[in-house]
Amino acid sequence: MLAIWRGFRNRCPHCGEGRLFGRFLKVRPDCEACGMEFHHHRADDLPPYLVIFVVGHVVGLGVLETEMRLDLPFWFQMTFWPALALVASLLLLQPTKGAVVGLQYALGMHGFAAIRRAGAGPASGLPEDETEMRHGVRTDGRNDGSSRP
């Protein structure tokens, strides 16, 4: 959750210090603070779908409630709701993309796993040596922390 929150705030999911975006939706190739590489992320399609889902439901509810409770002019409805949807979408798109990059980092997806195993510490609560225990066996194949497979 920490890596997702850091990404949502436009921060490096690893250290929380460096900026995640260079431009509006362009993820930096790496973190200027810790050097964590971001070039292998795959957060291109999911953020817009999530934003459309959330904004569509909120604006749709607003339209329905306004129509049922208030008698506003048609021109107001046709200018206010699309403008609100556009502004809300633009405001949520970058934080949502950052959260998806943070989620990929936290789950070790799309190249983040190899970097994290190579020595970068986690932001999501895994042990410092970046191994995970499943059914009493380490996932990296080592028996103890000192020997390699």
From the structure above, extract its key features.
single chain; 149 residues; mainly alpha; 3% strand; membrane; DUF983; transmembrane helix; transmembrane
Q: Fraction of residues in helices?
A: 40-55%
Question: Number of DSSP helices?
Answer: 4
Domains counted in the coordinates: how many?
A: 1
Reported for the largest beta sheet, the result is:
2 strands, antiparallel
Uncertain stretches: 120-134
Keywords: Membrane, Transmembrane, Transmembrane helix
Organism: Methylobacterium terricola
InterPro entries: DUF983
Protein name: DUF983 domain-containing protein
Briefly, what is this?
This protein is an all-alpha fold. Helices cover 48% and strands 3% of the residues. α1 (2-8) packs across α3 and α2 packs antiparallel against α3.
Protein model, in words:
The chain is mainly alpha-helical and 149 residues long. It has one domain (2-121). Helix content is 48%, strand content 3%. The chain contains four helices and two strands; from the N terminus they run ααααββ. It has helices at 2-8, 46-69, 74-107, 112-117, and strands at residues 133-134, 137-138. The chain has a two-stranded antiparallel ribbon. The longest helix has 34 residues, at 74-107. It is elongated. It starts with a helix and ends in an 11-residue tail after the last strand.
Blueprint (SSEs and pairs):
Layout: H1 2-8, H2 46-69, H3 74-107, H4 112-117, E1 133-134, E2 137-138
Antiparallel strand pairs: 1-2
Helix pairs in contact: 1-3, 2-3
